[in-house]
Design a protein that fits this description.
Layout: E1 6-7, H1 33-36, H2 40-43, E2 115-120, E3 126-129, H3 130-133, E4 139-146, H4 163-167, E5 170-179, H5 180-187, E6 195-200, E7 207-211, H6 212-217, E8 220-225, E9 228-229, E10 239-241, E11 254-260, E12 275-276, E13 282-283, E14 292-297, E15 309-318, E16 324-330, E17 338-339, E18 341-343, E19 352-360, E20 365-373, H7 382-389, E21 402-405, E22 411-416
Bound molecules: ligand MTE and molybdenum atom.
Length: about 425
């Protein structure tokens, strides 16, 4: 499986001028029939407003879909698919293509039959219906959710050919929900209540311990994503939102919150979602998703097809610590860096969109991006990460990604030494 290719930075790349300059995109030759001939869509009436009560993307966008990696999918009910990052722009992930990770399949729940219980070290144990929950004051926030295993298959070397597969265990969504703090205070937290156990109603009954400080800081009990109800695969009718922290803690189909005085040591925080170091010890409770970025185009699934000249280099960056302050892009494997332009909303614990507009001279590139967050934390190289954490780990790989752009515009996942 390991198709690691190591390239010496600089050796294979030429000097591609980083200057946006005047656009020299050639006009179409005269006599182009899509201009000179009347087309069917111009001649005949289009679809009526009754054609699609719930709209879908154009048939010409049929390749913008979630995809699996076959050898990772032993059984689809306990597996993962990936967001097609290479096809997206801006910062919001559309609901139908948010990656999915389930440990026991996607539960189908009638909201009339769903309850949220709060018990444990509280003054008054409570049970809410969905209707009850919708009477609490609510908030809207855009947050990324990244699985701790995102880029996990790349720990020992470059392997999967496409940012959908190397970085697609992430989505960025606007949630509508109730601050977890509001609900916990409604029940009354006892003074020794220091942890919250979140439990899902699915067949996996996913359970994670969350420190009370985080629960009161910014967690949400959400029922809407991007304005509409959560999708079943994202936890309909109710999910926990744990901003900036690993996706595993964002319990879907949330049915119970227990307040306790210590963590519960569940499977998902002992045998899984811990980072095995070279010395055999494991890092535990590694909750925060550190700064990370990836160039989404050009990338292996989004090659350059237009030849040399103006080229839009774009990608996404995020940090579980807050806002992304800066993204640098290198076209020569990390020797020289140019600060990219962050465009669109810069929100805490949300994806940021960046661009670097260059004039490509047609020579090979070693493209990299490097995020820095508002606390000055820089995304490390993969080798820096391995020096710290060894090669056993799967989780929390936020190393710098390299794409090798060849002269013909095709792109490959590589590492530079
Ligand atoms: N109840 C429940 N919650 C869950 C899971 C699950 O299997 N069951 N998977 C977790 C994992 S590992 C991740 S990465 C995220 C994935 O969220 P998504 O499916 O919306 O992408 O949900 C988390 N919450
Ligand atoms: Mo995950």
């Amino acid at each position: 499986m390991n198709r690691r290719s190591l390239l010496k930075a600089g050796l294979t790349t030429g000097g591609a001028a980083v200057a946006a300059g005047a656009l020299t995109i050639p006009a179409q030759a005269a006599g182009d029939p899509v201009i000179t001939e009347i087309q069917d869509w111009n001649r005949y009436l289009g679809d009526g407003v009754d054609a699609a009560p719930y709209g879908k993307p154009s048939e010409f966008e049929a390749n913008v879909v979630r995809r699996n990696v076959e050898w990772l999918t032993a059984d689809p009910v306990s597996s993962i698919n990936f967001t097609p990052l290479h096809e997206l722009d801006g910062i919001i992930t559309p609901n139908g293509i948010c990656f999915e990770r389930h440990h026991g399949g996607a539960a189908q729940i009638n909201p009339a039959d769903h309850r949220l219980m709060i018990n444990g070290l509280v003054d008054t144990p409570l049970v809410f219906t969905m209707e009850d929950l919708k009477r609490f004051p609510r908030q809207n926030h855009v947050y990324f959710l990244e699985c701790a295993a995102n880029s996990g298959m790349e720990w020992r070397g470059s392997q999967l050919n496409g940012c959908q597969y190397t970085h697609g265990m992430i989505h960025n969504v606007m949630y509508t929900g109730i601050p977890l703090k509001t609900l916990l205070e409604e029940a009354g937290i006892k003074t020794n209540g220091k942890w919250v156990l979140a439990e899902g109603a699915d067949a996996a009954a996913m359970t994670r311990s969350i420190p009370m400080e985080k629960a009161l800081e910014d967690c949400l009990v959400a029922f809407k994503m991007n304005g509409e109800a959560l999708r079943p695969e994202q936890g309909y009718p109710l999910r926990l939102v744990v901003p900036g922290w690993e996706g595993n803690m964002w319990v879907k189909w949330l049915r119970r919150l227990e307040v306790g005085d210590e963590p519960w040591q569940q499977r998902e925080e002992t045998s899984k979602y811990t980072d095995l170091l070279a010395n055999g010890k494991a890092r535990r409770f590694t909750w925060v998703m550190d700064p990370k970025s990836v160039i989404t185009s050009p990338s292996p699934q989004a090659p350059i097809t237009h030849g040399k000249g103006p080229l839009v280099i774009t990608g996404v960056a995020w940090s579980g610590n807050g806002k992304v302050k800066r993204v640098d892009v290198s076209i020569d494997g990390g020797r020289n860096w140019t600060t990219a332009r962050i465009d669109g909303p810069s929100l805490s614990k949300s994806m940021h969109r960046f661009y670097l507009d260059i004039n490509w001279d047609g020579s090979p590139l070693l493209l990299q991006s490097r995020a820095m967050d508002e606390h000055g934390y820089y995304q490390p190289t993969k080798n820096e990460l391995r020096a710290e954490r060894g090669e056993n780990s799967i989780y929390h790989n936020n190393g710098i990604q390299t794409w090798h752009v060849k002269a013909d515009g095709t792109v490959e996942n590589v590492e530079v030494s």
